[in-house]
Write a structure and sequence with these properties.
Order of helices and strands: EEEEEEEEEEEEEEEEEEEEEEEEEEEEEE
Number of strands: 30
Largest sheet: 7 strands, mixed
Shape: rod-shaped
Structural class: mainly beta
Length: 334
């Protein structure tokens, strides 16, 4: 047996010729079909705009070129998350195969999922290429609790955040805070934080008095962004300060009496001030209420003149929307 042409022990592409000759000089020759022997693995080349190992919010297209110059391609198969997703078989002898793989499945875990291509040639040699991809098309889901928009609190407020996101380890959550107190604006943004698990909890504590405007936003690793509606609330730990003046308590006078009322409250627009008047004259008692406060400034001063005869009892109360009660003030005069 001899091999036609140059050969080696690892690779061969040619024919086997068998010749025989007997003692009488008769000759016989047999030529085999073409025989290809190759142990060179097929080549797999990937081209894609996607950067492997990074999160994306778009479909991934991988342009795959496979070559088996030795003995041709027998089949090409690709797998997603370890399961076969497609296969191409070739009966004809071809040396190059070109095709595209489209991946649109969103990842369910923080480590994404795998895509693998396996190319087998007609000699049984196999090449593999495997990569991990990260697709996330959903913005982070955020649920807020603990604080109600528009509410007033007379103690510390705790804003609780529950965030669910598959790419949590590449997600940034921001909490931008403006606090307004007595006309002054303070910027009190909180430190950006990254969740530690798929569904994570975060709590923000607010202790200073003021009107708060809180904006929560989250940006995941694929660029998906969630922006929540602004959360507005007030922390008011201080009761209104009230005062009645103009005459000494228990005084008796023969003329009109002008009484001054003062209320000092930072959140004056929601403050409730009540002034109750009781007058006793000749054994007859009259009651009424003065509604003179306009609630348009922090320190509001009003006055009222009493001219009717009798013994008066003036009672002033104030209560803010956070539930803080002022110390009641009572004034008597005749």
């Amino acid at each position: 047996v001899r091999f036609a042409g140059e050969t080696d022990s690892e690779s061969y592409d040619g024919y086997i010729i068998v010749r025989a000759k007997d003692m009488a000089g008769n000759k016989f020759e047999v030529i085999s079909d073409r025989i290809v022997c190759c142990n060179v693995e097929p080549e797999v080349i990937w081209n894609t705009d996607y950067e492997f190992g990074k999160w994306t919010d778009k479909d991934i297209i991988i342009h795959v070129e496979s070559e088996a110059q030795g003995c041709g391609i027998k089949k090409v198969a690709y797998y997603v998350s370890g399961k076969k997703a497609g296969e191409m078989k070739y009966d004809d002898l071809i040396y190059k195969s070109v095709y595209d793989i489209r991946l649109d499945k969103a990842a369910e875990k923080k480590n994404g999922y795998t895509v693998e291509v396996r190319v087998t040639d007609n000699c049984g040699n196999e090449s593999k290429r495997r990569e991990r991809v990260y697709i996330d098309k959903k913005a982070p889901a955020i649920v807020l609790s603990g604080v109600v928009t528009g509410a007033y609190y007379h103690d510390n407020a705790r804003l609780k955040l529950e965030i669910s996101e598959v790419s949590f380890n590449d997600t940034m959550v921001s909490c931008d805070v403006l606090r307004i107190m007595d006309g002054r604006v303070y910027e009190e943004n909180r430190e950006v934080y990254t969740p530690e698990k798929y569904t994570d909890l975060k709590e923000y504590l607010f202790a200073k008095e003021g009107e708060y405007r809180v904006n929560i936003a989250a940006l995941d690793g694929a660029g998906n962004k969630t922006v929540l509606s602004e959360v507005n609330f007030v922390i008011d730990k201080t009761a209104p300060e009230i005062f009645i003046g103009g005459i000494d308590d228990g005084s008796v006078t023969n003329g009109d009496v002008n009484i001054t009322f003062l209320c000092d409250e930072s959140f004056y627009d929601t403050n409730i001030v009540s002034i109750d008047v009781k007058r006793i004259n000749k054994g007859k008692q009259d009651t009424g209420r003065l509604d003179i406060f306009e609630h348009n400034e922090k320190k509001e001063v009003k006055s009222h003149t009493f001219s009717g005869e009798g013994t008066y009892e003036i009672t002033m109360n104030a209560k803010d929307k956070a539930g803080n009660d002022a110390s009641r003030r009572v004034l008597h005069f005749t």
